[in-house]
Design a protein that fits this description.
Blueprint: E1 7-11, H1 16-27, E2 31-36, H2 39-51, E3 55-60, H3 66-80, E4 85-88, H4 104-132, E5 135-140, H5 153-173, E6 178-185, H6 195-201, H7 205-211, H8 221-232, E7 243-246
Parallel strand pairs: 1-2, 1-4, 2-3, 4-5, 5-6, 6-7
Helix pairs in contact: 1-2, 1-8, 3-4, 4-5
This protein binds nicotinamide-adenine-dinucleotide (NAD).
Length: 252
């Protein structure tokens, strides 16, 4: 029960990596604030956790709206008085296309959620963690935050931004006992990356992508959750500013 008495906020916890991470924290005794723009998905995650005997509550939230982000954190502080762990995980993939054809609206949307959303959340979280004397933050970046990914300009730019913000903020607040890290997942089977849908769109693509990963498979969301839990635990007490690939060796 590594996270007993801890208050844990996870954005984008109504699906995929965020949902599995919410389950994992709840299993370790944490009280999980499930935040998502999707009310149905968020409520489902809470119900699943409660059915397993865990503690969770849902807050509907758009990470790209600063007032909404402030309001969400205020709700948490009013109810619990502290925020020990924040996982800034909400993200969107955007519409793939080459750079000279990349949609202007797509750029704005992807940057607003994936990059600005992480900035907005960290801004408010760090202010609270300074007041309470510490905390741990993990941002979900991507291998696309460490290397290029053709046809995904906005996504790659947004995830490089997440890695840069993680490192900068980690250096600023290390002496205040606030640890800030990122994980960089490779293709992970979630609604955002569904190999079956992909196969229908382009036969053979899923196999080609797998071939490029040294472990020759896609990731399971629990492998991301396990890494996030470790980064937020006392076992990682000297780890900050790290952008950790969880990628079956792809970026090695
Ligand atoms: N699945 C992968 O292969 C993969 C690989 C690398 C990185 N990632 C990153 O992992 C994170 C989680 O992705 P996932 O695969 O679980 O996807 P997912 O689509 O299953 O989950 C993302 C969640 O974020 C929520 N969301 C979207 N926009 C939001 C907003 N404006 N405010 C609040 N919530 C919002 C969605 O409603 C959804 O519940 C994302 O940041 C994604 O970029 C995923």
């Amino acid at each position: 029960m590594e996270f007993s008495n801890k208050i844990i906020l996870i954005t984008g916890a109504g699906s995929g990596i965020g949902r599995v991470t919410a389950h994992a924290f709840a299993k370790e005794g944490g009280t999980v604030i499930v935040a998502d723009i999707n009310e149905k998905g968020g409520n489902e995650t809470v119900k699943q956790i409660e059915e397993l005997g865990g503690k969770a509550m849902f807050i509907k939230n758009n990470v790209a709206d600063y007032e909404d982000v402030e309001k969400m954190h205020q709700t948490i502080i009013d109810k619990y008085g502290h925020l020990d762990v924040a996982v800034n995980n909400a993200g969107i993939g955007g519409i793939p296309s080459r750079t000279h054809e990349h949609g202007l609206k797509n750029w704005d949307q992807v940057m607003a959620v994936n990059a600005t959303g992480v900035f907005y959340c960290m801004r408010v979280q760090i202010e609270q963690m300074l007041k309470q004397g510490g905390g741990a933050i993990v941002n979900t970046a991507s291998i696309a935050g460490l290397r290029g990914l053709p046809n995904n300009l906005a996504y790659v730019a947004s995830k490089h931004a997440v890695v840069g913000m993680t490192k900068t903020a980690a250096m600023e607040y290390a002496r205040h006992k606030i640890r800030i890290n990122a994980i960089c997942p490779v293709f992970t089977v979630t609604p955002l990356f569904d190999p079956e849908v992909m196969e229908k769109l382009s036969a053979g693509l899923s196999g080609k992508l797998k071939k490029g990963i040294p472990m020759k498979r896609f990731a399971d969301p629990i492998e991301m959750a396990n890494t996030i839990l470790w980064l937020c635990s006392d076992k990682a007490s000297f780890v900050t500013g790290h952008a950790m690939p969880v990628d079956g060796g792809l970026t090695a």
